[in-house]
Write a structure and sequence with these properties.
Acyl-CoA dehydrogenase family protein, 4-stranded antiparallel β-sheet, FAD, single chain, AcylCo_DH/oxidase_C, alpha+beta, flavoprotein, globular
Length: 598
């Protein structure tokens, strides 16, 4: 059933509450045809002492993983051994993001992600297990907990004896996070809340010792109430583990639980953050999780590249190694280019977090979609290069395929995030252009009123045309042409959107034009990631120019970065064309004709 205008207005109001704040981010500026270079340049580099600490931890984890984490056994037995859980604790892995004052290492996001990239390249189950504890578990307490809550709950969360989980998802609330049905009813004396409801698909949910739970609390301004966050523990009466370890397709080692609350009393002191602001807390925490996707997907992509190229050089068919065939080389080049880009976009997003940037919600959504979609292609290509050998369980490739599939679903399904990217990105330009739209629909746009109409055109053009082509400030001469191409594409994006809005005619039409949203999001994704790639390329080429030959990182080859730009620019142009020339009407007709038959 199609949404009514009132339902669309209510959804818009909910979104605006969640994204309230200054529109200052790099990605949002792209929708105006602007390039905020100061937010990406210079390319982020950790201070030497921070880098040394991060590299030391990553090296320890790599050695431990190679010698003690049997990824094949973990997948086969669907369990991370207790010895591994404790071994990671002994390395200090659970201390990474906990502030030093509570016994942690106080790592920033860029430091933390170096370790997560290692885990992502070795075993996705372990990476998800650790990240559920850190990015969406401990992080909620560090960001929104009071000093009293932090002092009470953080000690013990770093030695392996206690684990964290984040409980948002329910049978009726997945990507639609605002549809939480779990209720938290205040007691008559106001000393506590009584929770009732069910949560499922919760990583660590059935084994965690501290959980951040989202539940709906009464609110006088909203008949359905608003979502609040609560700290709960399994020893609270009414807490029930319905299923500790659900059997699933991939990341089988993680304990994905289903839990139920029945008249569970939670003291008011356990409200995390502001009452009624739970969704804002959830989205903030998910930003960290989405950036971590960038790192783990990068690590996974690097493992695929090594496996793909090694096998391709050894395997001989038709008197040639597979590595000599162009269609195999195409897969290797795609993987190298997109791995380079994942690493660049991850570094920029992590730097936004570390320096306390006010607006990076769109960037983290873009990174999550980009990294997970292209990793899926890379894993699929790796399996294709391996051929039948890769399909069997004595090789890791079939597990990589199963593990990678959840990435496009978890922490925001990619289809939903693409709509989010398009709608949130278009919000600023859309608000400005609404006056123009009202003038058109009100009959004030006509040849008989040419002067008035031209005035409206001037208002339409002002934010875009007066700025000209933006500057992309690369210093390496060999990047100047690519920088100019990107700048022209950014400007074209800003100029194109008003025509898209006018073609939709009404806000309601645009709100449900998901095929248009997808194209807009795809353009924004490739524009943003291309900007990150150019910043990384400029940094790499600058270092080589200043210091002479540097130690080669096989995944930091400028050739791969430059090839990514060629691919991305081609995709952007194709999607610009598809905004005007597409088969959407036939697509929808065919889909609806099929749907009614079954």
């Amino acid at each position: 059933m199609a949404l009514t205008a009132q339902q669309i207005a209510e959804q818009r109001k909910d979104v605006e509450e969640l994204i309230a704040g200054p529109d200052v981010g790099f990605a949002k500026a792209l929708f105006f045809g602007k390039f905020k270079a100061s937010l990406l340049y210079p390319y982020p580099v950790l201070p030497p002492h921070h880098r040394a600490a991060a590299d030391e931890m990553a090296a320890k984890v790599r050695v431990y993983a190679e010698s003690h984490i049997d990824h094949m056994r973990i997948d086969r037995e669907a369990r991370i051994p207790d010895t591994v859980v404790q071994g990671l604790a002994d390395l200090g892995l659970y201390k990474l993001t906990i502030p030093a004052e509570y016994g942690g290492l106080g790592f920033g996001q860029q430091q933390y992600l170096k370790t997560m990239e290692v885990l992502g390249g070795h075993d996705a189950s372990v990476a998800v297990f650790v990240n559920a504890h850190h990015s969406i578990g401990v992080r909620a307490l560090c960001l929104f907990g009071s000093k009293e809550q932090q002092a009470r709950w953080l000690p013990g969360l770093y030695d392996g004896s206690k684990l964290c989980a984040f409980a948002l998802t329910e049978p009726e609330a997945g990507s639609d996070a605002g549809n939480v049905q779990t209720t938290a009813t205040p007691t008559e004396d106001g000393s506590a809340y009584v929770l009732n409801g069910t949560k499922h698909y919760i990583t660590n949910g059935g084994i965690a010792h501290v959980l951040t739970v989202m539940a709906r609390t009464p609110d006088p301004s909203s008949p359905k109430g608003k979502v609040s966050a609560f700290l709960v523990t399994p020893d609270m009466p009414g807490f029930e583990v319905v299923e500790a370890r659900a059997e699933k397709c991939g990341i089988r080692g993680t304990a994905t639980g289903k839990i139920r609350f029945t008249n569970m009393r939670v003291p008011k002191e356990n409200v995390l953050g502001q009452l009624g602001r739970g969704l804002q807390a959830a989205l903030t925490v998910l930003n960290y999780g989405r950036v971590t996707f960038g790192a783990t997907c990068t690590g996974h992509a690097k493992a695929c590249i090594q496996a793909m190229t090694t096998h391709a050089k050894k395997r001989v068919q038709f008197q040639q190694s597979l590595a000599e065939f162009q269609l195999v080389q195409k897969k290797v080049a795609f993987a190298a280019a997109h791995c380079f880009a994942m690493e660049a976009a991850t570094a920029e997003c992590a730097a936004f977090i570390d320096r306390g940037a006010p607006d990076y919600m769109l960037e983290t959504a873009i990174l999550k979609v980009f990294a997970t979609e292209h990793l899926w292609t890379i894993v699929n290509d790796t399996l294709q290069v391996y051929g039948g050998k890769g399909y069997f369980c004595d090789q890791p490739v079939e597990r990589w395929m199963r593990d990678a599939r959840i990435n496009t679903i978890g922490e925001g399904a990619n289809d939903v995030l693409k709509a989010f990217i398009a709608v949130v990105g278009c919000r600023g330009p859309g608000v400005y252009l609404k006056g123009l739209q009202d003038d058109m629909l009100g009959g004030r746009w006509s040849l008989r009123k040419l002067g008035q109409s031209l005035g409206v055109v001037g208002q339409l053009a002002a934010p875009w045309l007066t700025t000209g082509t933006p500057e992309v400030p690369v210093t390496a001469p060999e990047l100047k042409d690519d920088a100019y191409t990107l700048a022209r594409l950014v400007r074209e994006f800003g100029l194109k959107l008003p025509h898209v809005f006018m073609a939709a005619k009404t806000e309601e039409n645009f709100a449900v034009s998901e095929l248009v949203h997808e194209r807009i999001a795809d353009i924004a994704i490739d524009l943003y990631v291309s900007a990150c790639v150019l910043a990384r390329l400029d940094s790499l080429l600058g270092l080589a120019g200043e210091n002479g030959p540097v130690e080669a990182d096989p995944h930091a080859d400028p050739v791969a970065g430059k090839y990514f730009l060629k691919l991305a620019f081609r995709r952007i142009r194709e999607r610009f064309a598809a905004l005007d020339d597409n088969d959407d009407a036939s697509l929808l007709e065919s889909a609806r004709a099929t749907i009614v038959k079954f």
